[in-house]
Write a structure and sequence with these properties.
- This protein is an alpha+beta fold and 109 residues long.
- It has a single domain, classed as Alpha-Beta Plaits, CATH 3.30.70.
- It has three helices and five strands.
- It has a five-stranded antiparallel beta sheet with strand order 2-3-1-4-5.
- The protein is globular.
Length: 109
């Protein structure tokens, strides 16, 4: 059985929705004990849009994801576990809310 050490919740946005994304990510951070990464106003890593990453521990994953599902305000959200197998985590184990986008998985081999 595979167990993740944590999960990443990525909110995707563009120049028109960056303020909304910041507001939602801050709201999640204020509501739950999550770690909020930088708000990237450029594509980073495999992500096809600007993004903000939240790191969520398994113990609160269900509660955070339920909140995000109801409060994402139309933003696309990409969620994946961190098991140590980056390719499978981003491809086979991923959850999408909203539009499913194509990731650049070439960095994972």
């Amino acid at each position: 059985m595979i167990s993740p050490r944590d999960y990443h919740v990525h909110f995707y946005f563009d120049q028109d929705t960056v303020a909304l994304a910041r507001q939602i990510c801050e709201a999640v951070k204020n509501q739950f004990p999550v770690v909020m990464g930088r708000v990237h106003e450029k594509n980073v890593g495999p992500h096809p849009r600007w993004s903000c990453q939240l790191t969520v521990m398994p113990e609160i994953f269900g509660e955070v994801v339920a909140w995000v599902a109801l409060n994402r305000a139309g933003l696309t959200v990409f969620i994946h576990p961190n098991t140590g197998d980056d390719l499978k985590d981003h491809q086979e184990h991923a959850i999408w809310m909203g539009e499913m986008l194509e990731l650049d998985l070439s960095a994972f081999g």
